[in-house]
Amino acid sequence: MRKLLNRVLIRFGLLITKAPTILVEKKLPPSKLIAPSLTEKVKLQPAVEKSKNEIFDIFCTETKVHKWHHYFDVYERYLSGFRSHPIRMLEIGVFRGGSLRMWNRYLHPDSIIVGIDIDKTCAQHENNNQGIHVRIGSQADLKFLAAVNEEFGPFDIILDDGSHKTHHQIFSFNALFRNALRDGGCYIVEDCHTSYSAKHVDSPETFIEFSKALVDTIHEPYLGREEKAFRLGHMDALQEIELSYLSAHLHSINFHDSIIAFQKKRRALPTSELR
Ligand SMILES: C[S@@+](CC[C@H](N)C(=O)[O-])C[C@H]1O[C@@H](n2cnc3c(N)ncnc32)[C@H](O)[C@@H]1O
After folding, report:
1. Of 9, 157, 219, 226, which one has the greatest count of Cβ atoms within 10 A?
2. This prediction's pTM
């Protein structure tokens, strides 16, 4: 009975069996291998120049949108490749609707932008004529997410700017990556600095820790196999191998200040060639 109760509490992020080390220690995890010259303290100055790109220009003329300035270069990096054709974008977290309008102005005019939010008042930001749709529900509700995917998905871009609670970030990633994100798409989670705030961490691992573990997943094919098993012309080369779905589809993970971007692309068997 107790086990079942714990499972239910964990499922809804209400029980942290073990607080993440980073919150207990309140300092960065030590690595004895980082050279002392790299850990010496240096002063940070305010930015001399603001981000110079089209999406930042749109942000400056938009209202009711809240974004950190250093996010714009990151958006440009992942979104600019999606501008030439109509795409589908899902944003978790609508708030005052400004970001939905910003994506709508930045992306191809025939794109479909879908915002989801737990707050019913966000429905007012729907503008079907502009391709902006809003659905009300929680990012931690599997049925709701499946229904949104059924109605509008799969998506080329999914951006999590929702509750920023770590169990929600993990839950939504787990729920959406496989079925709601198109091959070639990008899953972006922002405000990941919340992984360092006790107010937001409500899972046994922070979202940053969860994402670091996915770095290992990318390298799953090499676990227990010698390099030469992947060499062209070698006896064992080009045999099929079985991998987790995630490993077979997670092309890259990029860590930025407070933003993690996961690029999805079904991979082929890694092969090397000795010429
Ligand atoms: C940071 S705001 C979104 C800001 C908006 N994307 C922007 O850039 O202006 C976060 C939003 O997430 C919503 N939210 C909180 N918990 C949620 C949940 N469980 N599911 C979906 N949305 C949630 C809040 O109601 C709030 O409107």
Report:
1. 157
2. 0.92
